[in-house]
Amino acid sequence: MKRVGNIYQSIICIENLQKADEIAQKGKANQYGVKVHNSKKEENILKLHQMLNDKTYQTSTYDIFKVYEPKEREVYRLPYFPDRITHHAIMNILEPIFVSTFIKDTYSCIKGRGIHKCSFELRKALKDSEYQYCLKMDIKKFYPNIDHDVLKSLLRRKFKDQDLLWLLDEIIDSADGVPIGNYLSQYFANFYLTYFDHWLKEEIKVKHYFRYADDLVILSKDKNELHYYLKIIKEYLDQNLKLTIKNNHRIFPVSTGIDFVGYVHFPTHTLLRKGIKKNFARKLKKKPSIETVASYLGWANHCNSRNLIKKLLTHEQFQELQNKAKQKQFRRRQNQNKQSSEQRNHHSEIQN
Fold this sequence. Notes:
This protein is of the alpha+beta class and 352 residues long.
């Protein structure tokens, strides 16, 4: 892969920092940190530019808390200023470079390549009746076990801008592993496995391989081939990335269903994962908001779930949800049209 240089100044320029600030604020205007920042926005942007230019920038102290859905995890949160603006400024420039290194079968936190895209691609592969077996595995404590020295070495295979590498190193060394919650972490994590992905696809010649974050699925015609893949994958991850596959890995017939990215995939149909169905039913008993129900319906609408929806929702409830969704879409279109009209008027005033 070609190494990239001379991009640090593009990251720290005032225009990019302003753009990063604008993007980072979307949907967060009422947050305390955003309000404090906005009280002296221009001064803060200039101050951040100076810190990055002088290399006096240091990652702030993390606020660490636990979440319990879908499982217990420690989440790290940084202040809005200067850290979250800095992370967005970096990704404004680096995101297309990172994405260009990913194989097409890498999903998670990539625009256009989320859960549903991953699920649909797996469904397409399952239509090939020759591929009757599946190897499913995931990496043990992936984010906490990302090795800093290895990550830095991999970044140096792609980037040669020393100023950029100084900033990325500073952020990497601000916490153990790669902290869940950092905007940059999801890209660091994907990039950490990208050379592994290329090795599997281009050297080992695995045809049907799917990775969503640290969850991996491989299809094959032959069980013995999957046992071989498991063996060499374990060796590669241990020797090159200091990672370990969990002991719950499985090799099984695809006819029993592949539980992956929230769905159970069969060659002939796809169902919602059992845990998601249970959560959906539990939420409905508590009279949830339209947004919550719409979110679960969004999951259900992407699989064979007509009978499930009929079982969980009365006809009246379903119609009410449909009507509210239509009203919400109508209001959204009205707001978009209003914003477009205001922008046209603004441009017209500038030209006049």
